[in-house]
Design brief:
Number of helices: 5
Largest sheet: 2 strands, antiparallel
Low-confidence stretches: none
Radius of gyration: 17 Å
Helix content: 40-55%
Shape: globular
Number of domains: 1
Mean pLDDT: 76
Distance between the termini: 54 Å
Length: about 100
């Protein structure tokens, strides 16, 4: 299971850990970018973190809707401010 870890550079492992800690980054994004399954990410976190930090992270992400894309029900779950303008034609719209 950790064979993929051996092929990752230290900075890539750091990025995986960073993405795993982020609330809004689903495990699917880590899979897409690094080819790691959720179980492999958990194994990396377990091996790279102190036991107390790992337990805290595990409790935090377990069942969290934003970490598990299949649990999301909304079409676009990301927050978007109502005052945010659309970007069109590679020009950023200015507030009026």
């Amino acid at each position: 299971m950790l064979d993929k870890k051996l092929t990752l550079k230290p900075e890539e492992i750091d990025r995986v850990i960073e993405m795993a800690w982020e609330d809004r980054t689903p495990f699917d994004a880590i899979t897409a970018q690094f080819g790691l399954s959720e179980q492999q990410v958990i194994a990396i976190m377990r091996g790279e973190m102190k036991p107390s930090s790992f337990r805290m992270w595990r409790e935090r992400v377990q069942g969290r809707v934003t970490k598990h894309q299949k649990l999301l029900t909304a079409k676009d779950p990301r927050f978007k401010s109502s005052s945010q303008k659309q970007i069109s034609m590679n020009k950023i719209s200015k507030r009026v």
